[in-house]
Amino acid sequence: MTTNDANWEKTALENLLKENLKERQSNRRWRTFWRLLGLAITIALVYSYFAPFKKSASVLSHHTALIKLDGEISSGTSANASDIMMALQNAFETPEVGGVILKINSPGGSPVQSGMIYDEMMRLRKANPEKHLYVVIEDICASGGYYIAAAGEKIFVDKASLVGSIGVIMAGFGFTGLMDKVGVERRVQTAGENKAMLDPFMKQNPKNTQSIQAMLDEIHQQFIKAVKDGRGTRLKETPDMFSGMVWNGSKAVELGLADDFGTVESVARDVIKYTDVVDYTQTENVAERLAKRFGATLGNSFASALQKVDLK
User: Fold this and answer.
1) N or C terminus: which one in the chain shows less Cβ crowding within 10 Å?
2) 100/207: higher pLDDT
3) 308 by DSSP, 3-state: which?
4) CA neighbours within 13 Å on the CB side: how many for 85?
5) Among candidates 145, 158, 66, which has minimal Cα distance to 105?
6) Helix, strand, coil in percent for the chain, rounding step 5
7) E-state strands within 208-300
8) CA atoms 113, 114, 119, 125: torsion sign
9) Residue with the larger pLDDT of the pair 24 and 144
């Protein structure tokens, strides 16, 4: 064996040992990472389990329950019926709650979600007549937002709040004129003569337009009935009250769409008489956020792996 052969074997052995050491260090790092991740998930799950009890355990005396409804009312937003109803139920079921305030700042949204919240508010009020449910409006309470507000025992506003918009809208676009100009032909096949009635690339059919209008009118009447049932004799009806018009807070009080001026703090202090305010709004907890992010990361990793697979 020559000197060069010996040096080559020595170098190869050293390189092999170094690679083995790097691999062992890498494996240790990954084991540590997964252990820490598992610990973090466990802590988050434990926190998530005990979080609902923390709120009630920390409140030893009577207080005012606050529930926030912010933004568009939709099943895909924080202002969804499921979360709002759950918060209302939690507030009404807590013995230490002396009164409930639903604070609304919403331009409206789904009539279905709004109707579900309205019905639940009415049910809770009827089942718990000793526990008052008030609505406080901040910047805006329009359309579906006001649909919900009408279920409150009393509605409080700021003098500059925007209130009303008691109407229903379905909007879209039509591109048939543009298609004619550029020479584009729309080809669509359906099973069911009305299946494509909202297609923006087809001319409106008078029969379909009439059908859609009838549906909107029916939903509008449901809205009007909910407002009248909720507000009762306090309403001072005008010809444009249910036309979709919006008023400021001062005019809303004058028309009976609202009862008085107030804020969360003033209603808790002067009306409910319990100045301690506890937020019962349902929020996404740490465990849910972690699970979603972890799931998204795994999903992206899996998708990336699939993209590298060549199916032949």
Assistant:
1) C
2) 100
3) coil
4) 15
5) 145
6) 55, 15, 30
7) 246-248, 260-261, 277-279
8) positive
9) 144
Residue 267: DSSP 8-state: I
In this prediction, residues 233-250 reach a mean pLDDT of 94
Distance of CA 13 to the CA centre of its chain: 62
CB contact at 8 A, 142 and 106: yes
Other residues' Cβ atoms within 10 Å of the Cβ of residue 124: 19
pLDDT score of 260 more than 90: yes
Mean pLDDT in the chain? 81
Q: pLDDT tens, 287-300?
A: 554 454 545 454 55
As given in the structure block, the two tokens for residue 262 are: 């107030």
Q: In a 3-state reduction of DSSP, which class is residue 118?
A: helix
pLDDT tier at 180, thresholds 50, 70, 90: low
Q: Helix or strand or coil: residue 46? A: helix
Cα 213 to Cα 301: distance, rounded to the nearest angstrom: 48
How confident is the model at residue 54, as a pLDDT?
44
Note the pLDDT of residue 137: 97
Q: What angle do CA 131, 98, 82 make, to 5 degrees?
A: 65
CA distances (Å), origin 288, targets 41, 274, 300: 10, 33, 18
Length of the chain, please? 312
- Per-residue burial over 53-92, b = 16 or more CB atoms within 10 Å of its CB, e = otherwise: eeebeeeeeebbbbbbbbebbbeeebbbbebbbbbbebbb
Residue appearing with tokens 């407002």:
227
pLDDT, mean of residues 86-92: 96
CA 115 to chain centre: 15
The C-alpha atoms of residue 102 and residue 152 are separated, in whole angstroms, by 8
Mean pLDDT of 215-234: 93
How far is 89 from 136, CA to CA, in rounded Å? 18
Cα(first)–Cα(last) distance of the chain, in Å? 50
